[in-house]
Each structure stands twice: as structure tokens, then as C-alpha cells.
Amino acid sequence: MKTALITGTSKGIGLETALTFGRAGYKVFATMHNPEAASDFKQKIKNESLDITISKMDVDSDASVKKCMDDILQKHGSIDVLVNNAGIERHGSIEEMSMDDFQSVMNTNYLGVLRCTKALLPHMRKNKNGCIINVASISGHIANSPLGAYAASKFALEAISEALAQEVKTFNIRVAIVEPGIINTEMAADISVNGNSIYPHSKRQAGLFKAALKTPTPPSLVAVKILEISDSKTWKLRHPVGPDAEPFMAWRASLTDEQWVDWNAASDEDWYKSVEQDFGLNAR
Fold first, then answer.
1. pTM over 0.85, yes/no
2. N or C: which end of the chain has fewer CB within 10 A?
């Protein structure tokens, strides 16, 4: 039986991925910050008789990651698949966001992935087998306000994943980056308006996300892609997911950097008109 360790499984993409792997016959170690609050998840595991074990792990903490990983490896020997999914989002203008928020996002979304990866790599390397799947975002290619801090963490994750793939291929360890677009999760729904901001971008993005979520893409779609990567033996590095992921990245790539800056710096009226014209979304 193949084993998978998945981080950030309390909700959203992580929860759906744990269930999807469990239903596919994997032995799953589902980690999260607060297992006590996972009563619905535990009930689903029981109802479907899935081989899923929920463990407490805070990816922000070296000690917590080490303790959880050591416990699992001592009991079960090895992990075949690591899905680094745990992530947080903080949004706001660069001037107005606190340094604590910047540090929190980078600590979870980037350093958290490194902590988990480094904990398992020696075992995967020794076994000459493994698959590491990092859940990034189209924000790992597209930086715009008010998601600057989040984009920075995902750009960093893209870069370190690409470097890691080069290092571990000779040990038969596959690395894949999953890049969801706008997915119907609490994180996406929480892109809210900062009414006190001197910058207009928070209000604009809140409207854009709200309009996009009127035709929602479920997190289960991302979970199915992650399972597909695990099972397929593919060495493909990047995997955009969702109907808007590839089109939006292609649209950004079609613009010069200066055009991109100008688009985001446009007046409200011009920006809203452009979104309606280019994407068919009323973000007002």
C-alpha cells in the first residue's frame, strides 16, 4: 500500500486531497494545526472506512514538524508521497500590511514547505523513491496588489521547487508544482475589502474574486490533479489547475511588464471596464 503525507488538511484543497487519496487506496497521514476541530473529517473517515490518520503538525515550527515526521516514520518506515499543501493568505498594500503578516505568510507558505521536505528527503533518497507535490498558485507567476505578500511566497515556492527537482531526480524522486487558479475555498472567499486603505486594489480584487466564485471551481478538482500526478509517474514539473489558470497566466505573459503595471495602476473605471471586456466578469 502506498503512503502519502498531506499537510494543511483541515479544510479546502488539503481536506479534499486527503479524502481523494484515501478513497484511492492510499494510507494517508493527514496533518493539521488543530486536529481537535476536525470532527466532520473524522466522521467521513469513519463512515467510509478510509485508512487516514490525522496528526497534529504546525508547519511553522521546526520542533512540531520534526516530532510529527519522526513519529510517523518510526511507526511506518517511509512515506511515498509528500503533498505540501498548508498555506495562508494575507492581503493588503505593501505600505499598510504589517511586517508580522509578511513574515507569517513566508513562514507558512515557503519555509513550512522546506521544513517538511527536508524532514522526509533523507528517507526518500535512501529508498531511491518518492514524490513531492507542492501546492503553489497562479500567484507564483503573477504578482498584483493586494496579493503581493502571498505572491512573493508562491514565487519563492516555485523557485525552490524547480531547484529541488534538479537535485533529487537522480535519486528517483519526482517533484511537481500544482498551480490552482481561483478555487472555491474559504481562502478565496476571504479576499475582503480594506475600507480604510488609501489604495483601490483590495476593493477591486475582492470584486474580482466574488465574481469568479459565482461559477465556482471546487477544491476536489485540485485534489484529483494531485492524485493523478502521484499515480501517473510523470516527471512534468508544473501543473496549472482550473479553467482560469492557464488562460490567466497566458494573458499575463502576453503583456509587457510595463503594460501589466499600467493595467493595475489604471483608474477604477478603466480597470473595471477592462475586467469585463477581457474576462466577462463584473467585478464592481
1. yes
2. N
- The answer to whether position 116 is within a domain reads yes
How much is the pLDDT for 192? 64
Q: Residue 253 falls within a domain, yes or no? A: no
φ, ψ at 242 (rounded to 5°): 110, 155
110 is annotated as an active-site residue = no
Assign residue 153 the CATH number of its domain: 3.40.50.720
Confidence band, pLDDT 50/70/90 cuts, at residue 166: very high
Domain that holds residue 86: 3-186+217-242
Candidate list 110, 150, 199, 272, residue with the active-site label: 150
